[in-house]
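pasting for ref. prot 1 ->
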Amino acid sequence: MIVVSSCLAGLAVRYNESHCLDTRIRQLIDEGKAISVCPELLGGFSTPREPAEMIGGDGMDVLDGTARVVTKSGEDVTEGYVKGAYLTLKKVKELHATAVVLKEYSPSCGSTWIYNGEFKGKKIKGNGVTAALLGRNGIKVISEERLAEGLNKLI
């Protein structure tokens, strides 16, 4: 069993009520080989919601308390992102998932790249809060951008 970002499964859970359907992931869900999770919804956020980015570092820094997640208007929403990350970790452990496929660039799910905190579309190397927490707990995290390379190994 693998866990995947809900937006990749075609669910309109992103901040702007959109999705990022990946037909391979949707097929895995339809075949019962994957379960979808949205850390941001688990953290108490609604759809739609104001975009958020990390200030002062990446997901590792947020978990260490040295960076925070803020909305475009400046509201600190760090607590919700951390809560969603821990609830996602709990679900992954309950399912005994072998890997988690996450949506790149998200302040929750980015596993290689995130936005730089200026809300201007600039990306930097780093990971989201959920990706960081899963990695710290030995869970294999894969970006949807690298899914084609390892899909057969996951299932």
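and prot 2 ->
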Amino acid sequence: MSDVSVAGLTDLPALMSLESSFPASQRWSADSWREELIAVNRRVLVCGGEGVVEAAATFALCDDVVDLHRIVTSPAARRRGLARQLLAAGIGWAEAQGACRMLLEVEATNAAALALYATQGFLPIAERRDYYGPGAHAAILERSMSEGEQP
């Protein structure tokens, strides 16, 4: 397992490197990540060791709702539980902030991500058609913070 820590501006180059995991049309810019890192209502978490960022997640608090904006694991570090660690840490942060629920969008065909989110108590509540492009729909998932610890 890797350590989870709060990211800072010095992690920006590593975060940009992780963006290559996404199709070009879905990649975030450095300005987008910089905004995530400096906004007061956000929490960017990273996993890694020895100065390397292997995975990252960013969360945003608005009133009593936390949105998971992004979660990404480098291809070389997949299937090691890093996304699960980041998600658990983000849920803990959300609960500490007094959030009642967490929301996220995920590509409806991303079976691995859907399975991960289901193990953490997320349930589908809606769909956004063509969210990731023509024919690529997003499932909107929600988790109540009153769920307590998930398996």
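Helices lie at 12-18, 30-38, 82-96, 111-119.
Residues 54 and 76 are 8 Å apart (CA to CA).
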